[in-house]
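Example 3.2
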Amino acid sequence: MHRFAGEVDLLRSHRKFVLTTHISSDGDGVGSELALARGLWSLGCDVAVINPTPLPANLHFLLRHPKEIRILKDLRDPERYFAGALTVVLDMGAFDRLGGMLNLARGSDGILVVDHHRMERVEGVRYLLDPNACATGEVTARILEDLGIPLTRDLAEPLYVAIHTDTGGFRYPGVTPGTHRLVAALLEAGVDPQRVYTELYERMSALRLRLTGEILSTLRVSPKGRVAWIQVTQQMLRETGASFEDADDLVNYTLLIDGVSAGFYFKELGPSSTKVSCRSRGAFPIDRFVSRWGGGGHPNAAGVRLDLPLQEAVDALVPAALQALEEGA
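Structure, written as tokens:
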């Protein structure tokens, strides 16, 4: 018997669902929820996909129509979607990343978390977790198979986006031969890799390109070249007319530098609030490193939010990372 048979039976026992993912959604969360929603719709289920924050611009191509994913703030009576529904949270990481969706989910008929992150379990919540999976999209593909739902192009494309984006283009350590076998099945179902790549990475606006230049100009590298970091301030956003959405996904630039083991991208949310995207190369566990500030993620890709001004956040993380690297942590 499949080790998630009980959770899959929980899905089978419901006909009404709310699907959601974390705030500041990404390809894995959006791709996974769309694939599962379309699979459940094919079974005749009543499904609403509701996210706490708007989609990134480069993921809109996945939508079959503008309201396939609803945004919480746009709903007049969100409680009606949750009444009698099973809430399925995909690629959450932690409950504090659900924003305003959390209280609504508590009023539903139950909560099922589908994820590939390790996390503390909350009483009364069901979990379908596989930390060995490369992405939540991989877990979702298995659920669809267990439900007996055929893999069509409409399901395969969001699953491909989920896996492609969360593995950094299939280059992170969680990628296995099984990952590529699944991807082969997605391609056979009709996914066009060239179209997906173009939509994800080659639709940059002029505003985003200008902002990217501004952010990369802030690049700093530690004296021995082991840590690199970049930052974006509210002033930079105002001056370029861009938004945080335009400034996303730049942290990987820090790892392009030869010899860098840890890279950080500091984002000024407010006078005393900074969000940090973190990446590492090799054996340095960046998720374990940021856990001391309440962050989390994966061994080579993680994030944390600090109640500190931007420069104080830099002063807290960078020296600590240098010390951890020196100690071999």
